[in-house]
Amino acid sequence: MRGVFHLVRGLYTSAGGAIVAQSNVDLIANNLANVNTSGFKKMLMQVGASEKMELYRIQTDPGQVPDAPRPGVPTMTPIGPLGLGAQIIDTPTSFSQGGLQNTGNPLDLGIKGEGFFAIQTPQGLRYTRDGSFIRNAQGLLTTQDGSLVLGQNGAITIPQTGSLTVDTQGNLTLSTFQAGQQNVQQLDQLRLVQFANPFQLRSEGANKFVDYGAQPFVDTQSTVNQGFLEKSNADVIGSMVDLIKNERWFDTNVKSIQTQDTATQQAIEQVGRVA
Question: What are the DSSP calls for 53-74, one per residue?
Answer without folding.
Answer: EEEEEEE--GGGSTT-SSTT--
